[in-house]
Amino acid sequence: MTTPNEEKNTIWLTQEAYDRLQAELDHLRGPARQEIATKIAEARDEGDLRENGGYHAAREEQGKSEARIRQLEDMLRRAEVGEQRADDGLVESGMVVTIKWAGDDDTESFLLGSREMLGLDASVDIDVYSPQSPLGAAIVGKKAGDTATYEAPNGREVTVEIVDAKPYVA
Predict the structure, then answer these.
(1) Fewer beta carbons below 10 Å: N end or C end of the chain?
(2) In terms of Cα–Cα distance, which of 129, 131, 135 is closest to 157?
């Protein structure tokens, strides 16, 4: 089990999500990189680079691809791969957490983790909060009935009550 401090730097992923991200990284490092290099070379051969829209578009595509490669490398380096989290009510990455804001009876549920955990299913409509976010950091390690206070981006102290924490099921 990770400590709350280690949890803040860890991205929890199922084996399926990890494999999907690794495949994306392999594609970006290999065939996609080569394809972009070919586009740049072909556009460069067209002449004047200052007014060459194809060249600038290919260079922009290359920049975005390299940024995604760095993001994937970082995520996979910090990934903790495992099966579905235990249904023990403990708030940790990989859980759907339901909270209630202090002074309000309405509840809000969200996935504590990374958007990559959701996979490619665009029909999943759930907010995702990172364990590194102010709210996420405040609730990691808590259980139903516990309260947590954190500082919101506007500087105000916000208190929430943990109502429930259940494993996310894709």
Answers:
(1) N
(2) 135
